[in-house]
Amino acid sequence: MSNRAYLAKLCWRLLKNPNSLAGKILKGCYFKYSNFLDVKKMANASYAWNSLIWGKGLLEVGPRWRVGDRNSISIYMDKWISRPSTFLILSPPNLDNNTTIEQLISLSGGWKTRFVKQNLCVEDANFILYIPIGSGSRKIISVALQ
What we know:
Blueprint: H1 4-16, H2 21-30, H3 47-61, E1 64-67, H4 113-119, H5 122-130, E2 141-144
Antiparallel strand pairs: 1-2
Helix pairs in contact: 1-3, 4-5
């Protein structure tokens, strides 16, 4: 396995589907008491596992999460802003816990700047307002996870 992008994609699948058969087997063998993002390369691990760890490095350096459905991302529960290490909103929840990104976007397709600034702390608002919003029917939001 030498294609790092492919390995990063496999790592992403492990992160998104930790209860898959592969996820359960790898967790049992290599990171029983931690999570996949915290695992380091091991000298006694298989070549395939160490290749995955190499691919995971690409995720840690600068992946982007591209989203087509703004209603699928909870602003409080999901990791979606470019805050290093947590990627989470730190503001106390002034809005309903089920609030999604879609509710922060105006009918014209831009951020509801005033609403965002009124309901979230300055730092969170700045992270959010910096995120470009896709246009058209796809409604893509692309967030740098770095």
